[in-house]
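Need Glycerol-3-phosphate dehydrogenase [NAD(P)+]'s 3D structure for a figure. Predict it.
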Amino acid sequence: MENVTVFGAGSWGTALAIVLAENGHRTLLWTHREDQANEINIKHTNKKYLPETILPTELTATSDLETAVDHASIFVMAVPTKAIREVCGNMSKTLNKKALFIHVSKGIEPDSLMRISEILESCLPEEFVSDIVVLSGPSHAEEVVLRHPTTITAACKNIQSAEKVQDLFMNGYFRVYTNTDVVGVELGGALKNVIALAAGISDGLDYGDNAKAALITRGLAEITRLGVRMGGNPFTFSGLSGMGDLIVTCTSVHSRNWRAGNMLGKGLSLEEVLNNMGMVVEGVRTTKAAHQLALKYEVSMPLTSALFEVLFHEKPPKVTVDELMIRMKKREIDNLL
Ligand SMILES: NC(=O)C1=CN([C@@H]2O[C@H](COP(=O)(O)OP(=O)(O)OC[C@H]3O[C@@H](n4cnc5c(N)ncnc54)[C@H](OP(=O)(O)O)[C@@H]3O)[C@@H](O)[C@H]2O)C=CC1
Ligand SMILES: O=C(CO)COP(=O)(O)O
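Structure prediction for Glycerol-3-phosphate dehydrogenase [NAD(P)+]:
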């Protein structure tokens, strides 16, 4: 059994900490809010993020970063993409041993266009990082805490590190596969949020199932196009971290990205939607990053570009869909890769 610290006590960090604690690992959950650490330690709840869940008593929390870093040499990074740099920068000040970093965040940083593992590499001291593993796949926290069967992928260039993560998390309801394609797994996890926002908009406009199936299928085509251009393995995009996560995020009411899109489709402004959510909607910033990546790599990503216009230039969703439908005629398969 291992000592593990999970950084970030939102829905996903808390759900993964429960899996680890149930697997017998001495698991500490770090939160930047002292009141939340107290709630977890005293009441064994995290009402804001998982209102129905009672946490295992063995799972403890701290808001002291030094205690969190000292506790383990396996760290799970579960804060939103925009907080990764800040948290890693602060951790670096107290880090004094080699550690395995597992990250579960699904985003791409706008402007730098870095994937999460690249951000981690850039802001952690190299001598204290044994490896970086990404854990990603169709896995809503709300279902994991109910112990509903869930499958996910651990990816690292070094397969032994991916297998270590597989062993840490795997149990009767949480099945972990391994992959060495870090680029493909990270891109699939981040880019599906863009398409999930679009699927939510489509549902908000009451466009029905044909439209949603089209978004999922053509969304996967453009994710794959960019992902392969950036070095991902084409097969990864039809795996759990690609198609699997795309399906769950575009079709589940648990998805914050889908829900945000749904509100946009019903006519709310982006500002109103984000104020309503109270949880991270990664797809918004990632749409900007994906739009920039499409331009940089000269890859056609019509859905991403259309969503970029809706989110950042207030283009009405209905007009955007009309324009998408009357684009130049195309072959379906040519030009996929
Ligand atoms: N929810 C899910 O089912 C899944 C989520 N993910 C990914 O995991 C990542 C985290 O998502 P999730 O847990 O759902 O997000 P939530 O919005 O549920 O929680 C985010 C957590 O991060 C904390 N946080 C935000 N900013 C900072 C900061 N600067 N320093 C420290 N802590 C901070 C929040 O604190 P506060 O409460 O103070 O805001 C909160 O505890 C995302 O990238 C998401 O895409 C991946 C798979 C499944
Ligand atoms: O990535 C997720 C499920 O696999 C969670 O998606 P949302 O961030 O849209 O809720």
